[in-house]
Amino acid sequence: MPNRVVFYLEGPPSGVDLLIDSVIISCSSLEQFKESKRFIDGDVNIILNPCFEDGVNNWSARGCKIFVHNSLGDGKITPLYGRFFASATDRKQSWNGIQQDICGKVKRKLAYEVTAVVRIFGNASANVCATLWVQSQNGREQYIGIASLRASDKEWVTLQGKFLLNGIASKAVIYLEGPPMGTDILVNSLVVKRAKKLLRSSSPDIEGLKGEMVHSRGIHDINIISNHDFSSGLLSWSLNSCDGYVVSGESSLYKGVTAVTGMNYAIITNRTEAWQGLEQDITSKISVGPTYSVSAYVRTCGGQNEPAPVIATLKLEYLDSPPSFVFVGRTLVSKEQWEKLEGSFFLESMPTRVVFFIEGPPPGKDLLIDSVKVFHSGLRHSPKMLYGVNIIDNSNLNQGLKGWSPLGSCTLSICDGAPYVLPAVARDSLSHHEPLSGRHIVATNRTEIWMGPSQTVTGKLKLHLTYQIAAWVRVGSGASGPQNVNVALGVDDQWVNGGQVQATNDRWNEVSGSFRIEKQPSKVIVYVQGPPPGVDLMVAGLHMFPVDRKARFELLKEKTDKVRKRDIVLKFRGKESSNVPGVSVKVTQVKNSFPFGSCINRSNIENEEFVDFFLRNFNWAVFGNELKWYAIEPEQGKYNYKDADEMLDFCKRHGIETRGHCIFWEVEDTIQPWVRSLNQNDLMIAIQNRLRGLLSRYKGKFRHYDVNNEMLHGSFYQDRLGKDIRAYMFREAHKMDPSATLFVNDYNVEDGCDSKSTPEMYVQQILDLQERGALVGGIGIQGHVSNPVGPIVCAALDKLEILGLPIWFTELDVVASNEHVRADDLEVMLREAYAHPSVEGIVLWGFWELFMCREGSHLVDAEGDINEAGQRYLALRKEWMSHADGHINTDGEFRFRGYQGTYNIEVTTPRKKSSQSFVVEKGETPLVLTINL
Ligand SMILES: *[C@@H]1O[C@H](CO)[C@@H](O)[C@H](O)[C@H]1NC(C)=O
Ligand SMILES: *[C@@H]1O[C@H](CO)[C@@H](O)[C@H](O)[C@H]1NC(C)=O
Ligand SMILES: *[C@@H]1O[C@H](CO)[C@@H](O)[C@H](O)[C@H]1NC(C)=O
Ligand SMILES: *[C@@H]1O[C@H](CO)[C@@H](O)[C@H](O)[C@H]1NC(C)=O
Hints:
Bound molecules: 2-acetamido-2-deoxy-beta-D-glucopyranose
Strand order of the largest sheet: 33-34-35-36-37-38-40-41
CATH class of the largest domain: Alpha Beta
CATH superfamily of the largest domain: Glycosidases
CATH architecture of the largest domain: Alpha-Beta Barrel
């Protein structure tokens, strides 16, 4: 399905008018119409001839022979439903069976339910499986197991399962297979239809749970594992390439071993590989969103006597990619006693199939399992308990070097003379912590930049929580000036930045950052590194703790009320005013005039769905690339203003304000080759031409300009033309379009992770520009952030605030593959920005999948579905609209407090109902408005 389908009537030569009437498009045949209706209804079986009323028509054999019967085995086998059933016979392989092509009938991202009534013939019992074979558009084939069931020759059984295609399939065939050769598969009926609930974000389990994980009730009481205590033998369980049975009471083989709970436990035996064990398909019982906690009692027998690992794992099967395995939990067991295996997991997206495994001991050892539980970690395992709890051992160094070890061959020792309080940003979010001791770690004999103090934190980290990191750092006297110091995380041998600063020798420097894990790692260490070899590194008070984002939101709501709302007094005048007291008034905000913008691309404005969402939810725009110099003048003297003109026109038509991004871009890589190759003189002339060309053409049209993008990260123009060139660009831009506010625009200013672009450096840069006569009118924070922490963002805004300039988030996007986490990240950023008095506008760097510059940041997917992050954006926009209901008081007034923007007021007097609108401008003092009745 394309993004947009346009139907045209055209053709006569130009100059000839075209008259059109009565345009009808209908399905060309009744059959096709029915086909498409079936699709819409969803409740219709997509299998043709599902009960074999029409013989073997529409079915085919998969490596065997198929027949249709009304009875078999001297009349012993008759259909359960209807009059017929099919047999797949002469089967030579387990994958032989009966199949039907369902290509073109299944839509991606929708869940389908499969129900088959099956039986076997020729063997007492065997597994029958429903499988989907698909080929994706790029030719990749995949087999998706939909369901599997132990079938017998005694009775018909119902096989049930679900599947979901993430990608577009060019071929799809469903078939029933499984029993060993020689066994016939009998099929009475097969139904494949749209599942009642989408498997995706609205499966029954998580309905009403969105963003409310912690407060949900009820769900966390349900164990997702069926037959968890083996009271029904191995029902619902499957053995993964090994043997197993259930013991009731005491096993004759394992004397003295009894079940932990109930009577039974399972013994998994004849294991020849570590991964062999017990599995259960839990696809239909879990969903994206909640965290699940897992526990099981396990022990081993046989083989070598030393303790052996037992591991809980998930296998996630996807249509478009190979299966992935998620580590859930692990324990070491010996044969002396049952050990409790514990763990947790969280799904980032819904796979087509999820299988839970218990496995792990070396081959030869039997694995004993009892009482397996998988729960929503609802109230009982609330992460609230973890918030603000520092996971670094011996942070304050009261116990010497306990918990700390050198990374590499450096030497650690303890000295006095460090601060006694935590860095301020951490103090805000960490209400309870021990005071620091004044001691610090000194790392000496460093021979590599990565050497420094380290600590292993593997078991202490929880998935999807956002950890704030804070520490004091300093470099030894050997340093030749400020040095990069970085709190780093080694996550399974990958380096992750947890905060970075230019640290000096003369004082303690505060470093802060954030960190999050989205997949269970097998090892995580935190360490401090950065200065060149030979330079000593000092560290004090390193803290790392999960932040309670929701708790901060409460503070921000109060702050927002103070900053963004205004007292409004409506005075009623006019003919009716003498008898107004008591009359009822209803005030409804229809628009919030605070700038909320988005980046748009040229092609976006042709996508109706995009335009619809954009116009509903934004009042400002910035163009992705279309105004950039390289887009407008890719070759010297060859101009293309067309795209920008059309986009500007679109914005003007719809009352959307625009930011001009950007006149120049200081980072060399982004500059088109012809500009890069100019000599000094010609470069200066080209700059003047660019300024004149752009600013005269659009004079008075763009409300803002980003004059020279990313001057903290590049220096192309400055290196060639000297320091004044930057201020020159501002001075000239101002001369040519005095109505535009001129911005600096840079990234990584707000998150503490980049020592090249700290708020302090940004302030200094702006002061330098101002000193040279640049009229800097606004500070642009791009806001391409990851795992944002509110107090860190706020601290950066506070530091920038001292300049008294408006601050705008100009390119905000947050990246998290899990939509729920992304929604939280976005809420952190939007709330911090909207609550801060210096922030005067928020512009997102796009919202539509495939038109984002960072993957995993979209709010609306390519098909137009608003995801969790998009819903969160809409919910906040709704929260930031004021409404009031009441009666006019005896002074003829109605008072309320509301956000800036446009309001409707409805006044109902005994005689008439009237409605009008008014506007609330930004302001400090109460706004008094007269309403004429
Ligand atoms: C199903 O079988 C009938 C009877 O042979 C045939 O007319 C029809 O075209 C088949 N439909 C499809 C989609 O193969
Ligand atoms: C029945 O299946 C089992 C394997 O599940 C096999 O060992 C046995 O030979 C089969 N019996 C017959 C009669 O085919
Ligand atoms: C470590 O450095 C000190 C000087 O700072 C030096 O005296 C000592 O020998 C070094 N130790 C090692 C093991 O290199
Ligand atoms: C579209 O806009 C995004 C920002 O949302 C930008 O990163 C991207 O490069 C643009 N794509 C095109 C094709 O212009």
